[in-house]
Amino acid sequence: MNKGHLLLKLFTIVLVLTLGVSMNACASGGTVSWQEEVLLHDGNKIVITRVNTLGGYPTIDSRERTTLEETVTFKLKNQEITWKMGFLDSVPEPNSLNLLVLDFVKGVPYIATYPTGSIAYNKWGSPNPPYVFFKYDGKEWQRISIEAFPSQINKTNVIIGRPPAKLIKSFYTADEVEKQNYDIKSNEYKTIIRTPLDHWKPRPEYKGPKAPHPITPATKTDSQK
């Protein structure tokens, strides 16, 4: 084999390997990450890091991939704390919770979330109002009741869902976080409502950028009135 043929063969092998890596990366969807400045109820601010692992496109004409998993990390004193949530309806365990609020009371982290569709809503016991609350006990996140969730924590302070992947910035100020949620229309996703909502029922939805979009209450049809 002459030198020219050898170089051509080596080039072909490198090209095939490169294309293979590229195709695998495209198939898996990769990850997107950003940081947010979170305004706490007492006026203080912290910075959180959010990483979304992406899957495929939910439909042929979709421009954004679904979110398979989200990891949120932040520091409390010298400890790094992580909140991790998967988004797979196919698994039996409760999952698919979207972050609404992260805050602290007396140095204890609390989180408010909501189920991202009908399947997740049923897995979490069909809560009304539609929230699932957690408290960090120093080792792990424990689910708590709405009565145990501090009353002074009452306003959404993180980006709900995620911005479109191609437009994601590396850092969002607290003001920019609020602007990202400009299209949230339902009051239960702006503030924490502590009383049941009449005729509240979730509807299925996909998990992508700025999604799952807040689940809106079902309305009565003419035949039900």
Description:
With 225 residues, the chain is an alpha+beta fold. The protein has one domain (29-189). The chain has three helices and nine strands; from the N terminus they run αββββββαβββα. It has helices spanning 3-28, 118-123, 174-180, and strands at 31-39, 45-54, 67-76, 79-86, 97-105, 108-115, 132-136, 141-144, 171-172. The strands form two sheets. A five-stranded mixed sheet has the order 4-3-2-1-9. A hairpin with a 4-residue loop joins strand 7 and strand 8 (141-144). The protein starts with a helix and ends in a 45-residue tail after the last helix. The model is unreliable at 5-28 and 211-225 (pLDDT under 50).
pLDDT averaged over residues:
82
Unreliable parts: 5-28, 211-225
| Intertermini distance | 84 Å
Query: What composes the largest sheet?
Result: 5 strands, mixed
Which H/E pattern describes the elements? HEEEEEEHEEEH
Specify the structural class.
alpha+beta
Helix content: 10-25%
Annotation, overall tally of beta strands: 9
- The helix count comes to 3
- Main β-sheet, spatial strand arrangement: 4-3-2-1-9
Keywords:
single chain; 225 residues; alpha+beta; 4-stranded antiparallel sheet; 3 helices; 9 strands; 29% strand
Overview in brief:
With 225 residues, this protein is of the alpha+beta class. It contains 3 helices and 9 strands; from the N terminus they run H-E-E-E-E-E-E-H-E-E-E-H.
